[in-house]
Amino acid sequence: MYRQILINVAHRNFQKILWRFPDQEPLQEYVLNTVTYGVSSSPYLALRTIKELAIREGKKFPRAAQALEHQIFIDDIAAGADLLDALLSLQQELIQLLQTGKFELRKWASNHEALLSAVNASHLQMPCSFDKDEPICIKVLGLQWNPSCDTFSHSCSPRDLPCTKRNILSQIFRVYDPLGFLSPVVLFAKLLMQKLWFAHSDWDEIPSDDVCRQWNNFKSELPELRAIKIPRRIFVDEPQLVELHGFCDASQTGYGAAVYLKCRDFTGNPQIHLVIGKSRVAPLKTAISIPRMELIAVALLSDLVDYVKQVYARHVTLDAVFAWSDSQVTLAWLASPAHRWKPFVANRVAHIHGLIPFTSWRYVPTAENPADCVSRGVTPAQLVNHGLWFQGPAWLAQEPNNWPQQPDITEIRPQEVFCEERTLVLHTSFEEHFLTLLVNKFYSLPKIQHTIAYVLRFISNTRSDKLTKQFGPLSPLEIQNALLVIVKHVQMFCFTDIVEQLNKNNLPPKPFRKLAVFLDGRGCLRVDVYSMLPGEAQILLSLYGRPPSRKSFTTKSFFGGMSRLRRPPLDYHEQVSRCQVTNICVFVCCAVKAIHLELVSDLTSEAFIASFRRFVARRGRCSQIISDQGTSFVGAHKQILEYFKLAAQTATIQWSFNSPGAPHFNGLAEVLNPQKKKLLSPSALRVRVNHLHRTETVIIKIEQELLLGPQSSETAARRS
Fold first, then answer.
1. Could you write out the DSSP letters of every residue in 71-121?
2. CA distance 668 to 660
């Protein structure tokens, strides 16, 4: 076959050899033009060439192309057909297809004489045998095939060699069993070999008498294997039912599995044949429990069943697939999801579920399990008469209602089942917010404010350009923003349900409805102070001309000391009397235009600071102050920064100055000058300002008139 395939011209230089025929001639260089024996790529090139030939000529010879694709092993083709005419047609197609590639078929062998008469006698396979007593057997893929009875057989003539580990291993590998028909016998021999490994015997050392006795008995019974006949054809004509049954078992010494095919013809006669078997010895390094060994056997059976299904999918349609095990513990593991068990069981259960569903698994008693012998091993003499291994249990040929009764797997609760149950451990980790960590770690609110303020500045600077970045000491506004961040975080932690309800535009819980809670523009939770004031305070608000209503919140909050943002523009007004000069400091709220007048003895910074303290004590703290650049205001600002820096930062009061020489920038304070001058005239009030307490009374009266605003004559008459 190899010499019929030419190598590409570009690749022939890789097959150069040096050779000379007579010794006296010089060395000559030769190039091999065909596929060469011994090269690692030769098998692939040969099979790829046959496949390419089948692809190109597949339309002309479809049956032959199908056989070349699925029924060829290196240079041997093993194919067949149910009818003689179909077989002869396949023979001619194979000859013609391969002839297009200059391949000539030889060594023909068949169980029908008509097929052999269609070819030249020189192209027939000569009968050969592994044993001199059976010359009619033909070698087919390492097996002995008897064409006359169409059966496979095994023949092994043991060698008369000393009982050593080397000779035992050599004899074991002489038992060629690719389909596992002799798996119980092979397991018995492997167990003997395992004993030698466990005893640390040398390769040429004579083992113990017990091992020698078992090996000599085993070797003497090996010729009896030729009595085993395995039918080649396991399908029937016009099958009415085709089922696949797999059995598995395990023990402390080994485990194995076997697969059987059940076919029922049109007369209702069932036929059961062994398809494939496999055995393995138990590991010695790690001790494995019997239930786990049974699970390993179940996994082995799943792989075998899946392999048989893939091979038979091209030939027949399986009506049902059943898998049998005598371990109820293993079946209980399969009845539950894989994630329930520990890794050893879970991995194998998941693998088994992927190949065979749990609905296909059945329980079989140990005495009726044909895989019991493949898990313990038997001698050749025992296997010859072991009908359970070759034909399966007797009830397998009967109807399903005669099969073994199935226990309720879900009710099985032995200790072996639950010892493999996974212990569920949940690990939860709670990461506290960094603000919570700061609050719990430091007990100084200013320190926490400064820390957060620097963090906010860093975030702002990373997102800003060079011109707008902030440097130097923290400003009162930055500290105030840090305080709002802390307040918002604490409110979200303590009043989570209230904040969620307000975000959804729903009413807060009943205990908080009386407080008229709301969220401001920055997401902070605030309380309507008017709802918390006593009755006298409400009357006081009415005297100032702001009736209690929801719309006048800023006014109420102004007088309650919780204004959102109040920027009182400042201005001085002088009233000259016969006694002394009286100065008035005007505070105007930028939010609600409320006016506050404060009597100042002179224009010094100390006098203004005293009046400012009285204003804050009476009206509440303001967040920002806007004034012109009068010496009193500038000096007061410097003194506040110098003497009350910490207090000012804590209070977060920001001071802003208008441009010099621009009184119109301070419009809210300047626009009231005409009214003040009119109200401060003695002719209007008819009061002689010559005593301080009378002056203070006049200032408060003026403040009242300014807060009430312009009124009609009728209203003024009623009020008077």
1. SEETTEE----SSHHHHHHHHHHHHHHHHTTT-----B--SSHHHHHTS-G
2. 17
d(CA 710, CA 687): 21
Who contacts 504 (Cβ-Cβ below 8 Å, separation ≥6)?
A: none
| Backbone angles phi and psi of 247, in degrees to 5 | -125, 145
Domain boundaries, the chain: 2-107, 165-418, 434-536, 563-719
- What are the structure tokens assigned to 314, written together? 């091209």
User: What average pLDDT score do residues 159-188 get?
Assistant: 90
Please report the DSSP string for 5-71 in residue order: SBPPGGGGGGGEEEE-SSTTSPPEEEE--B--TT-TTHHHHHHHHHHHHHHHSTTT-HHHHHHHHHS
* Alpha carbons 51 and 46: distance in angstroms, whole number: 9
Exposed, middle or buried by CB within 10 Å (0-12, 13-18, 19+), for 698? buried
**SS3 of 321-373:** EEEEECCHHHHHHHCCCHHHECHHHHHHHHHHHHHCCHHHEEECCHHHCCCHH
Question: String of b and e for 562-589 (b: at least 16 CB within 10 Å)?
Answer: bbeebbbbbbbbebeeeeeebbbbbbbb
Q: Which pair of tokens denotes residue 138?
A: 């033909």
For all residues of the chain together, what is the average pLDDT?
80
pTM to 2 decimal places: 0.60
Q: What are phi and psi of 626, to 5 degrees?
A: -120, 130
Residue 238: which region, alpha, beta or left (left: phi > 0; alpha: psi -120 to 50)?
Answer: left
**What is the rounded CA–CA span in Å between residue 400 and residue 396?**
8
Task: From 175, 111, 158, 118, select the one nearest 137 (Cα to Cα).
Answer: 111
pLDDT of 557 reads 25
Tens of pLDDT, residue by residue over 426-446, are 777 767 777 888 878 888 888
* Token reading at 239: 């099958």
| Closest among 600, 596, 597 to 610, alpha carbons compared | 600
How is domain 563-719 classified at the CATH fold level? Nucleotidyltransferase; domain 5 (3.30.420)
Q: For residue 221, give Cα distances in angstroms to 229, 384, 416, 503.
A: 16, 10, 40, 89
569 closest CA partner among 664, 696, 701: 664
Distance CA 279, CA 282 (A): 10
Output the six-digit token pair for 622: 């303001």
User: Could you tell me the two tokens for 562?
Assistant: 């919780």
- For residue 377, the SS3 value is coil
**How many CB atoms lie under 10 A from the CB of residue 439?**
17
Identify whether the C-beta of residue 420 lies closer than 8 Å to the C-beta of residue 345: yes
pLDDT of residue 548: 32
